[in-house]
Write a structure and sequence with these properties.
It is built from no helices and twelve strands. It is mainly β. Strand 8 and strand 9 form a beta hairpin.
Length: 261
């Protein structure tokens, strides 16, 4: 539902780092690992957003088909199509926002549950997907700090590519960060750590990242941005073709322009 994303500090410590020849080892490219992602997308759903009362609000949705797709994988609108990997998805999130004397708090928590999970071939499985997440952000003066966490149950049905996972493997992700803004300048530091069970809970894959981000506002809706990021992946004792996969790391330096209108 995307409501909790406002509690996630800064930009994603983003690096699509861990790729082999023609495919991705392990879980997902590390740039797609975070705490604001749910277990369904591209699905038709019914949604409710509550009014804000005393800083509190909540929202709920139900999607009969979490990811409307043809059996071959093509995404299409509608409900009369096969779905992979989740159906009958209930999402519930609550937020709290309040301006105190000299500081502001934003916090949220929620969960998503799939009552029907499917294999890639469309067959039902008893390992239904679920996701629980929470986060907060505190702003005071020119500073903002925050942290968030998520727990993914049966994550191979949560939409993550999972080379070595079994249907019952679980995962968790935590992030933390802060930023400082003065005039047209802003700088932020954030980190991410995650752990993913593999091969039926017999070993774990670890992904971690840290990034330093900066921006300078040129004018209304236009800014220059840069990022220095380090990412690391350790695949655990999975083996591959009889050979263990070594740990991988990546350093990324980015510059760009952001235009909002």
């Amino acid at each position: 539902m995307g409501i909790l994303q406002q509690c996630r500090p800064g930009r994603r410590a983003a690096t699509p780092a861990t790729q082999g020849i023609g495919f991705t080892f392990g879980v997902s490219p590390i740039g797609s690992v975070g705490t604001r992602y749910g277990i369904e997308y591209q699905g038709n759903k019914i949604m409710y957003f509550s009014p804000i009362i005393g800083g509190f609000s909540f929202a709920a949705s139900f999607a009969p088909q979490g990811n409307s797709k043809f059996a071959g994988g093509g995404i299409t609108p509608g409900t009369d199509v096969s779905s992979d990997p989740v159906d009958n998805v209930l999402s519930v999130y609550a937020n709290y926002v309040h301006q105190f004397d000299g500081w502001k708090l934003t916090a949220g928590a929620g969960g998503e549950w799939s009552f029907t999970s499917l294999t890639a071939a469309g067959a039902p499985t008893h390992d239904n997907a679920a996701m629980y997440s929470a986060g907060f952000q505190v702003g005071f003066g020119k500073w903002t700090v925050g942290a968030s966490g998520a727990y993914y149950k049966n994550y191979s049905h949560d939409g993550y590519g999972a080379t070595f996972s079994k249907s019952s493997d679980d995962a968790w992700v935590v992030t933390a960060g802060g930023n400082y803004t003065t005039g047209d300048w802003a700088i932020g530091l954030q980190g991410m750590y995650s752990q993913w069970q593999e091969l039926g809970k017999t070993t774990d894959e670890v992904m971690a990242a840290i990034s330093l981000n900066g921006s300078y506002t040129l004018g209304p809706g236009v800014s220059l941005e840069g990022q220095l990021a380090y990412t690391h992946g350790n695949y655990g004792d999975v083996g591959f073709g009889g050979t263990s996969i070594p740990s991988v790391w990546n350093v990324e330096l980015d510059f760009g322009t952001d235009i909002d209108f």
